[in-house]
Each structure stands twice: as C-alpha cells, then as structure tokens.
Amino acid sequence: MSSVSSPANDIGRPVRLLLFSTLYPNAAQPHHGVFVENRLRHLLATGGVTARVVAPVPWFPVTGGAFGQYAAFARAPRAESRYGVEVGHPRYPVIPRFGMTLAPLLLYLAARRSVARLLADGHRFDVIDAHYFYPDGVAAILLGRRFRLPVTITARGTDINLIPQYALPRRMIRWAARNAAHMITVCQALKDSLVGLGVDAARVTVLRNGVDLQMFRPGDRDLQRRRYDLDGPTLISVGHLIERKGHDLAIGALPSLPGMRLLIAGEGPEHGALEILATRLGVADRVRFLGRRPHEELADLYGAADALVLASSREGWANVLLEAMACGTPVVASDVWGTPEVVAVPEAGRLMRARTSEALAEAVNALFADLPSRAATRAYAERFSWDATSAGQKAIFSRFTGRGRVA
C-alpha cells in the first residue's frame, strides 16, 4: 500500500473530494438531485476544495412500457462536465423484486471500476462524500474499504425517515453508520432519527441546505403575474405529482377557499387522478397544471403566487420552502420532519395543524388574515445562505486531508 500524500505535502493543499451519489443531475435529467449539485457548487466556490463526481444511473434492458422510467436514465451520458466539474455516470443494473436488497452491492460493483480508473489516471482523493444513506451510503462504505478512503454520508430524507422501516436495509444503514468517518444530516429531525438507530450524536453534524439568494429573489411582481395571467389570490404547489407530496390536499382545500386559484408545477403518475379530483370537487376551473418547469423559471412562479403550499407526508429539508421565501412568498406546509425548522417564524408562513385539506385551508386563511410583507419574508430567507453549510463541510472534510490511501 502506498500513501496518497505525506503530511508535509498537505500543508495548504486543497481538500480533494470524490462525491458519490445516484442523486445528481445529468444532461438528460438536469433537475435530478440538483440540491446535491448545488451544495457542491457552493462549496467549490469558497476555494480550497476540488472534486470529481461519480453518479451512477440505473440500467434496465427494457426501456418501454412499464419500464419507461429508465429511458431517461439511459439517455444520460457516460461522462460529462457540469459547471467545471467532471462527472461520470456508470450504469448499475436494476433487478425487479430484489432491487432494494441488492442495490448497495450493485452500486458498489458499478462504481468500483470508475473509481479505480480515476486512480489509475493519477487522481487522488482525501474523502468520499456520499449522499443518501441507502443504498448510496452503504455502497460508499464498500468503496471506502476497497480504496482505503474515509467516507462521510449525508442523510437527506426518506433514506432515514422511511427506508429503515425495512429490516435488512436498516441493518445495512446501521453498519454503514458504524463505519462512516462522519455523518451529516440536512435537519435536526433526521439527526434525531439517526441517533434513534443507535448512532453516536457526536458523529453527526446538522448542515441544512441553503438557498441561492441570487437565483431566487423578488422580481417585478406585476410582470410575473401578467406572465401567468393571474388576477386574484393564487397558491402554488411545486413537486413531483406523487401521493406523498400532497397535491391532492391542496386541491381538496379549494372548496373552502373561494376565489383562490392553485398552480401545480410538476409531473408524475398522479396527474390524471389529480385532474379527476379537481373536476369532482368542482374546482377544475381554478386549478392549472403547469407540468415540469425549468428550475430557473421557478423564481418567477414563486413571485407570481401569493403563497406556496407544501402538504408532504415526508420531507428532510424541502428546498422549495426557502426558494419561495427568498422570492418574498410565504408558505403553508405540513408539520413534518425538518419543515418546522424552516417555517419557524410568522414571516416564513404557517404550519398545518394536521395533514388534511381542512387543516390546509385553515392555515391558508390564517396566513392571509395576517399576511407578512414580502420584504419581511425575503429578509427571513436571507438567514439561510449557503455560507454556513459550506464552512461546516470544509471543517469536516479538512480533517481527512492526507489520510486517504490507495492500493
């Protein structure tokens, strides 16, 4: 075994990260895992850190019919450069019925070749920065053992608030936690859950996601509202059209919110059912489905709306909340996981007392009865820049400079 570098050579040297996650954008899916890319970009902008990314994508031999979801991943390039960062997308096979159990091993086997190739080409790393505990974090620990590199794992949401309900993944998550050099969570609630799984609290740091205050900021609201032809009080719900995002609860609240419109930005399997629900409730004329919108367009959508609603059943740290607030738009959200840590003052918005349409309508009415100024909501969001998160990452990663070794 030979050392990557000697301590004498590490003085003043940048920390060299190998970011590993299946949650990372690619040319075919530019918004997939964009929050992971955003955190890395802000970290790199501070200086003193370099990075390469290995972001595996799933592969299945059939890309039509029931397996059409894999067609988009199939279009991802094998390698690309994004914002000056080199990204590799090795393929890992998806095996129906056994996918959850075998995913960590299949991820490891797919990524091992990519990492070995990087090392053979002369690249050296101090730490593997893994995102999402299962299967990514488990696979990252296997990579760390193979290449003698410390591993940090960031927990982001369902990897800790849902997947540990399954016995075998729970055991593997605990194993990964025992072998990780350090762990990060995006909210205190996820740290508490990790501790509940038996993880030492001292080995977990909370580093919440920030918000890009330049991309998301107040604009010309009259122009934004004209762009979307809005002439009355308007709510917006943003996210995949899946059950846990609670778009149905937002639609269900409209009968109790006369005169209020609802914009829904996103796409997904629940689209048809949501349209049927709006028709059945007699509010179809007040619901507008916008489909998936480019990330850079969201600022105008937030700015045009009077409030964002997020009725999710599970969220680690919902980025849409801070994005809306940074545009001056307050929020109404379900009281789950990290959300109370974001919606913590009246200027931010209101939390629902329960995850029901009735409670959502009640919270919307309470918000509109004492609507904060958009300037006050923006000022609150400005507390959540990426600066503290980037500083926290650097403090953690710098512990490992010069400790990595390769065979």
Main sheet overview: 8 strands, mixed
Measured as a percent range, the helix fraction is: 25-40%
Q: What's the name of the CATH homologous superfamily of the largest domain?
A: Glycogen Phosphorylase B
CATH topology of the largest domain: Rossmann fold
Total of DSSP H or I helical runs spanning 4+ residues: 17
Return the CATH class of the largest domain.
Alpha Beta
What form results from the Cα inertia axes? globular
Q: Tell me the strand percentage band.
A: 15-25%
What are the segments in which pLDDT stays under 50 over at least 5 consecutive residues? 1-9
Overall structural class, as computed from helix and strand content, comes to alpha/beta
How much is the average pLDDT? 91
> In angstroms, what is the radius of gyration?
22 Å
Strands of the largest sheet, in order across it? 5-6-3-2-8-9-10-11
Named CATH architecture of the largest domain? 3-Layer(aba) Sandwich
How far do the termini sit from each other? 5 Å
* Overall tally of domains: 2
Number of strands: 18
Explain this structure to me?
This protein starts with a strand and ends with a strand. The chain is 39% helix and 18% strand. It has helices at 7-10, 34-45, 69-74, 99-120, 133-147, 158-161, 167-179, 188-196, 221-227, 247-253, 271-280, 298-304, 319-326, 339-342, 357-369, 374-381, 387-397, and strands spanning 2-3, 15-20, 49-54, 57-59, 79-82, 85-88, 91-93, 127-131, 151-155, 182-185, 204-206, 234-238, 261-265, 287-291, 307-310, 331-333, 349-351, 405-406. It folds into two domains: 2-210 and 386-406, Glycogen Phosphorylase B (Rossmann fold); 221-383, Glycogen Phosphorylase B (Rossmann fold, 3-Layer(aba) Sandwich). The strands form four sheets. The protein has an eight-stranded mixed sheet with strand order 5-6-3-2-8-9-10-11, sandwiched between helices. Strands 14-13-12-15-16-17 form a six-stranded parallel sheet, with helices on both faces. The protein has a two-stranded antiparallel sheet with strand order 1-18. It is of the alpha/beta class.
